[in-house]
Design goal:
The complex is a heterotrimer of chains A (about 325), B (about 300) and C (about 325). Chain A has about 325 residues and is mainly α. Chain A contains 13 helices and no strands. Chain C is globular, with a radius of gyration of 21 Å. Classes of the chains: A mainly alpha (about 325), B mainly alpha (about 300), C alpha/beta (about 325).
Chain lengths: ~325, ~300, ~325
């Protein structure tokens, strides 16, 4: 246990400079943005003096390291600045983000669940029927599902379920369960392809191991051998990858939310980009980056929990 | 003991050449020709890619309607014999827009990856050549960029730079270089080790040039595989960005952009949502198959290096 | 000495083949074998000669793409090859069980020792009451002389040493008192010091439970220690079979002799280790004659053409070699 704790602490400490670097990059990105945010804040036909006064007020004339320092300081206090976008000027970014965060988390969570509930059984099936028709068609499915752009899949789902069949609503703003199905499925299917492949190869590897034959030699039923023993061994490496999947899902969420008008962070960042609302963009990027880093960290830790040999590294 | 002065650079070169090289352009092309025919994925992938490139290159001379022509008489028509993919709400022929869209998507995809390759190779070589602290620094940056989903990075960069074709290409190349850099760096480090071994016997040769001539041929096979898959990823990213509105802008008819307007009119003109997406799927599938197939052909050991 | 005992396993003409893309590999080419009640039979030979494959064939656990293509296996009168998969499963672990070579890969790493033992015991003994089950598990662990069985029960395989894992394997195999125990190289993966302990344990337990044992090994020393009778296998065929002392004292087949001389003996001074020249033949090719012909110093033309049959050249001592035509014994150089 002690070595696991040491490993976790080490990984956490290593993550800190990564997060700092991310904040630096985000800050630099916006610092270097061409265009002047002031013009959005100032009344039209403002004089040069007035513009400068506004710049002074917003601290835009200070040297970069001061601005970065202020940025970090604010960050630690949960202050992500204020929006300068049309319709939301002055609203604190943090509140805008937190309202949307829950929705995105719901979407990602459901998507993950769908992805794994499709991917794991398919992977097992493909492994058990290796090279037969079931396996080959599953492999083709994964190939196509992986290549399919998520927004197109979303559009197709919309077409099918909302337009032609009229089963589900087109735009998801009420947040009810019906609204989450389509976007979650869109997210889930793309990742399901990867999960299927991983599960299949993991299962294939495990089935060939000595202890499986040993179990059979003890008279244990084939069903128990596969679904109790082989499965438990094979699913472990697949589960540890959940953290890395989060990175994939974050990117996917941005697109899928736009397709279905799902009120999450993805939609927020897209709108903000189009409105040139840079503080909001900055805040969103930070949150998304944080998710990705946290996801990777989780994957690292899970992996160490599962495989004791990794803890020394 | 009459020993003629041996050119140290020649000697170093010979020593390194004695080391078994798996690369070399001619060898790789030969392998592809010989074994590629038998591999299903390569055949299908290459066919799709070739067809796409042909369409893209030949678009101006193909007997199709001008994609920007707005035909007031044929607004929002569903697919028919005159308009294979139908028309959009401004009367433009969707089929020719899809064909012309190939130019943009392929152009962006390939250029972005080439740029990415350049950045990655340079950084990888530098890291491998200098080693030590420089390598440590660059590796850290590589790791950071590698674990981060390229799409998010590209989104951030595109947001900052503003929506346009060139910016999308820049954004993608800045986000995707990490995998190439890793590859080249690994190879460069190996060569550097050999250099140290041999250099103790040789005298002050021009290491930089030798590194260059020995590192790249060995990386060639995996680089080709990753580049092909990279183009698929680049097309995905570009179309996603264009769909969101931060990528290519009108009047450039990029596939992704077509789909974004398709969403608004999904009830009136559902066919606009179908065909550009199909084209994107075909392109991504083609390059993915080609890359995977080439990997099987050139080196089965590379399997599992994805992600 | 063997005639009063009843045979519990009779194999006749067993042929097991693997159907690969490159060709067909004949792993077992017509094996005739009998194991009697209460005895311990050693199966000896080089790697790849088919020793393990015989075991797998008996339990019908041959990996794909292999199959039994000829012959019969009778276990106490039951035709094993005619059993349905369900019936065969009833035999495995309960009436015939097997211990594998490498204990570190033969136990499921994600279940505790107690769970794995419990699974086997409850399956075969229809015992589901927790307390009774736990008592049986502890008993099984004590039987194999594991100290602190309560804590071992809760441990995972990777927490145990090689010797302890092998004991657990033995416990698993003997938990339901099988009539036949097959041990495939049970000590090869263990430290030398542990080997003796495990072998003794096997011997004692087999004697206690009255099980017969089939001990597969390439180590003649182990055979000498543990087995009543020995079979020597080469290239998928049995070439010699006798009681242990008889075989070691009067080896007949050239291969057996080569094996015995290659084995360095304590106290013997040798400059070089003697080897049998040549290498094991490719089992994809079929040999009309004797499979040892290319490496044998006494090979004749007949050896190349005609496959020698097993013939009894002394009471209980069978050889398949043209040097010893049936009915006679030629004492050769």
């Amino acid at each position: 246990m002690a070595d696991l704790l040491a490993h976790v602490i080490r990984k956490l400490l290593l993550a800190i400079p990564v997060i700092l670097l991310a904040t630096l990059i985000v800050f630099l990105l916006l610092y270097l943005t061409p265009g002047d945010p002031v013009s959005a804040l100032a009344p039209p036909h403002a004089s040069g003096e007035q513009l400068n006064a506004i710049r002074q007020k917003w601290g835009l004339l200070d040297p970069p390291y001061v601005r970065y320092g202020r940025f970090l300081w604010n960050l630690l206090h949960g202050d992500l600045g204020s929006s300068i976008g049309f319709g939301t000027v002055g609203l604190p970014v943090s509140s805008l983000v937190s309202h949307r965060l829950v929705n995105t988390l719901m979407l990602m969570g459901t998507g993950l669940a769908i992805s794994y509930s499709i991917g794991i059984p398919l992977g097992i099936l493909a492994a058990l029927r290796q090279n037969k028709l079931a396996d080959k068609s599953i492999m083709v499915f994964t190939l196509v599902a992986y290549a399919m752009p998520s927004f197109w899949l979303g559009l197709l789902f919309l077409l099918l379920f909302a337009v032609y069949l009229g089963w589900l609503p087109i735009e998801g703003t009420t947040g009810g369960p019906a609204n989450i199905i389509l976007p979650a499925m869109t997210l889930g299917i793309g990742n399901a392809a990867l999960t299927t492949r991983m599960m299949r190869s993991s299962m294939l590897e495990v089935i060939r191991m000595d202890f499986i034959t040993q179990l059979r030699s003890r008279g244990i039923s084939e069903r128990d051998v596969i679904f109790r023993h082989a499965f438990k061994n094979a699913v472990l490496p697949v589960i540890t990858v959940i953290g890395l999947d989060i990175g994939w899902f974050v990117g996917g969420a941005v697109v899928v939310e736009t397709v279905f008008s799902w009120p999450g962070i993805g939609l927020l960042i897209t709108d903000a980009i189009l409105k040139a609302d840079f503080p909001v963009v900055q805040g969103c990027v930070l949150v998304l980056a944080f998710f990705v880093i946290a996801g990777n960290l989780m994957a690292d830790i899970l992996y160490a929990v599962v495989d004791p040999r990794v803890r020394l590294g | 003991m009459n020993q003629t002065r041996i050119n140290p650079r020649r000697r170093l070169n010979d020593a390194l050449l004695g080391w078994k090289m798996r690369g070399g352009v001619r060898q790789i092309v030969a392998e592809i020709m010989e074994r590629g025919n038998k591999n299903v994925m390569v055949v299908i992938g290459a066919s799709i890619v070739v067809i796409l490139i042909a369409i893209a290159v030949l678009a101006p001379i193909l007997p199709i309607v001008d994609p920007t022509l707005q035909n007031g008489n044929a607004l929002t028509k569903s697919p028919s014999f005159t308009h294979w993919f139908g028309t959009d709400t401004l009367g433009r022929d969707v089929f020719s827009r899809v064909v012309w869209g190939a130019r943009i998507s392929l152009f962006v995809g390939t250029v972005a990856i080439l740029l990415s390759l350049l950045i990655g190779m340079t950084l990888g070589l530098v890291a491998g050549y200098f080693g030590g602290k420089i390598d440590y620094l660059i590796s850290g940056v590589i790791d950071l960029f590698w674990t981060f989903p390229a799409f998010l990075l590209a989104l951030a960069f595109a947001a900052v730079l503003g929506p346009s074709l060139t910016n999308v290409m820049l954004a993608i190349s800045v986000s995707y270089w990490a995998s190439f850099a890793r590859l080249v760096r690994g190879q460069a480090l190996t060569v550097r080790e050999r250099l140290f071994v041999e250099a103790s016997r040789a005298l002050g040769a021009n290491n930089w040039r030798i590194m260059f001539t020995h590192v790249l041929p060995n990386c060639l096979a995996p680089l080709i595989v990753w580049a092909s898959i990279g183009v698929a990823d680049a097309i995905t990213i570009e179309s996603s960005l264009s769909f969101l509105g931060v990528g290519t802008q009108p009047p450039a008819a990029s596939w992704g952009y077509m789909l974004s307007s398709a969403k608004t009119f999904i009830e009136e003109a559902p066919w606009i949502a179908v065909f550009p997406g199909l084209a994107i799927l075909a392109a991504i599938l083609g390059f993915n198959l080609l890359g995977d197939g080439l990997r099987d052909v050139l080196d089965p050991r590379l399997k599992g290096l994805r992600r | 000495m063997t005639s009063e005992k009843k045979p519990i396993l009779e194999i006749r003409g067993l042929r097991t083949q693997f159907f690969l893309q490159e060709g067909t590999v004949t792993a077992l080419d017509g094996i005739d074998l009998t194991i009697y009640e209460g005895e311990s039979l050693g199966m000896c030979g080089e790697t790849g000669c088919g020793k393990s494959m015989t075991a797998f064939s008996i339990l019908r656990l041959i990996p794909h793409p292999g199959r039994i293509t000829a012959g019969s296996i009778r276990f106490k009168g039951i035709d094993l090859l005619g059993l349905s998969p369900d019936q065969m499963r009833g035999v495995r672990g309960r009436r015939i069980s097997m211990i594998f070579q490498d204990p570190s890969t033969s136990l499921d790493p994600v279940f505790t020792i107690g769970q794995q033992l419990g699974e086997v015991i409850s399956l075969h003994q229809n015992m589901y009451d927790k307390n009774a089950l736990n008592a049986r598990i502890l008993n099984a662990l004590k039987l194999v002389r594991i100290a602190a069985p309560e804590s071992v029960m809760r441990q995972y395989p990777h927490e145990l040493s090689g010797g302890m894992k092998q004991r657990v394997m033995i416990a698993l195999a003997l938990s339901c008192s099988p009539e036949l125990l097959i041990a495939d190289e049970p000590t090869t993966a263990l430290d030398v010091t542990i080997q003796a302990q495990v072998l003794n344990l096997l011997k004692d337990l087999a004697r206690k439970t009255g099980s017969s044992m089939m001990l597969i090994t390439h180590n003649l020393g182990v055979v000498a220690e543990t087995c009543n009778r020995v079979c020597i296998m080469y290239a998928g065929r049995i070439v010699e079979e006798a009681e242990t002392f008889e075989l070691f004292g009067k080896p007949m087949h050239p291969y057996t002799r080569g094996l015995l001389t290659a084995f360095p003996k304590l106290g013997e001074k040798k400059e070089e280790l003697s080897v049998i020249r040549g290498t094991v033949p490719n089992l994809m090719n079929s040999f009309p004659g004797c499979s040892f012909v290319d490496r044998c110093d006494f090979a004749t033309d007949q050896c190349k053409r005609v496959r020698p049959k097993m013939a009894e050249v002394a009471p209980g001592h069978l050889v398949a070699c043209h040097l010893y035509p049936s009915g006679g014994g030629k004492d050769n150089a």
